[in-house]
Specification:
Elements (H helix, E strand, L loop, with lengths): L1 E5 L4 H10 L5 E5 L17 E4 L7 H9 L4 E4 L9 H6 L3 E3 L6 H16 L2 H9 L17 E5 L3 H12 L3 E5 L5 H5 L3 E2 L2 H7 L2 E4 L13 H6 L4 E5 L8 H9 L3 E6 L21 H7 L4 E3 L8 H19 L11
Parallel strand pairs: 1-2, 1-3, 3-4, 4-5, 6-7, 6-9, 7-8, 9-10, 10-11, 11-12
Helix pairs in contact: 1-12, 4-6
Bound molecules: nicotinamide-adenine-dinucleotide.
Nicotinamide-adenine-dinucleotide binds next to α4 and α6.
Length: 331
């Protein structure tokens, strides 16, 4: 039997992985704890581990996994900024991921944030429940012909461009690799500076790495239009949270939609509603009326969970058979 420990396991992970596990040779053990170097000893006796976005696979953790004889790390997500890939390779620890499960799921959630913020749906919902039918303060703006900056035009960014085209938005894109599909759609590649200066809405869809860490900072924020709408459904570390709060206070940012947060690993995916809040920056952010935050749920559709489970299982089955594709991270 090939034994796999599933870390950060939620009930839905268990359901989708179990329902799709048709391989008789693979046995899952579901562990709610997040994987860090402190919890890594739980991986003893397992052939492989399966992890998610906020598990921390740094050198210390990888050393423990290696010493325990773990052979394969199956990420059940697309992003891999939480794994020290180079170090894993030196330990001969094979890593797989789910490069594309449903870019539309995240793009549609991005659109949901844009539309909700613009039309103040999060405010209106509460007002109507309290018999307050006043429209004061709920004025929105038409998306028609507005300029949207899309940073990162890979699978999710291009799915968003397709949706925005339907709203007749002017779409300005930035990516280190330009795609013909994007220009064929009528979108225009420009510099980051052009996006900061001209976009009414800016949406982030590039990976978190050394080049992109804190790409939204005091300097870039300063160059943006007053009242800009900023949306981040990619990774929290793309934004300097302190600079963001300052830009909300000065009204440089008029609307902020986040599905990810720089320090989310200590907060997201768990119920903290009965605890004394411990993250002052998060509470400051969440307190602004023009901020809408969801807890990393962009991926969370039936179709995406199904695809995540089947691809993860296929990666695990390949690993069990000793087939380790080395192109997974190039997709
Ligand atoms: P992708 O690899 O298809 O696209 C990423 C794009 O970013 C590529 O075109 C790449 O060239 C570009 N890029 C790389 N470096 C860049 C830079 N310095 N500046 C601008 N662009 C750069 O990835 P994807 O599937 O579209 O996912 C994008 C990101 O979305 C992932 O990295 C992940 O962090 C995030 N994500 C979030 C959720 C969620 O639930 N919120 C789910 C899946 C993925």
């Amino acid at each position: 039997m090939y034994r796999v420990a599933v870390f950060s396991c939620q009930p839905y992970d268990q359901t989708y992985l179990s329902q799709n596990n048709h391989a008789e040779e693979v046995e899952f053990t579901f562990i709610p704890s997040r994987l860090t170097h402190q919890t890594a000893p739980l991986a003893a006796t397992f052939d492989a581990i399966c992890v998610f976005v906020n598990d921390v696979l740094d050198k210390a953790c990888l050393d423990i996994l290696h010493s325990l004889g773990v052979k394969h790390i199956a990420l059940r997500c697309a992003g891999f900024n939480n794994v020290d890939l180079e170090y894993a390779a030196t330990l001969n620890l094979h890593v797989s991921r789910v490069p594309a499960y449903s870019p539309e799921a995240v793009a549609e959630h991005t659109m949901a944030l844009i539309l909700s913020l613009n039309r103040h749906i999060h405010k209106a919902y509460n007002r109507v429940r309290e018999n307050n039918f006043s429209l004061l303060g709920l004025t929105g703006f038409n998306l028609y012909k507005k300029t949207v900056g899309v940073i990162g035009t890979g699978k999710i960014g291009s799915a968003l461009c397709r949706i925005l085209n339907g709203f007749s938005c002017e779409i300005l894109c930035y990516d280190t690799i330009q795609s013909d599909c994007i220009t064929a759609m009528g979108c225009k590649y420009v510099s980051l500076r052009d996006i900061w200066e001209h976009a009414d809405i800016i949406s982030l869809h590039c990976p978190l790495n050394e080049q992109t860490s804190h790409m939204i900072n005091a300097r870039s924020l300063q160059q943006m239009k007053d009242g800009v709408m900023l949306i981040n459904t990619s990774r929290g570390g793309l934004i300097d949270t302190k600079a963001l709060i300052a830009a909300l206070k000065s009204r440089k940012i008029g609307f902020l939609g986040l599905d990810v947060y720089e320090m989310e690993s200590e907060l997201f995916f768990e119920d903290h509603s009965m605890e004394i809040p411990s993250d002052d920056l998060f509470d400051r952010l969440a307190g602004f009326p023009n901020v809408l935050i969801t807890g990393h749920q962009g991926f969370f559709t039936h179709e995406a969970l199904q695809e995540i489970a089947t691809t993860t299982l296929s990666n695990i089955e390949n690993a069990r058979l000793g087939r380790y594709p080395d192109t997974t991270f190039l997709c």
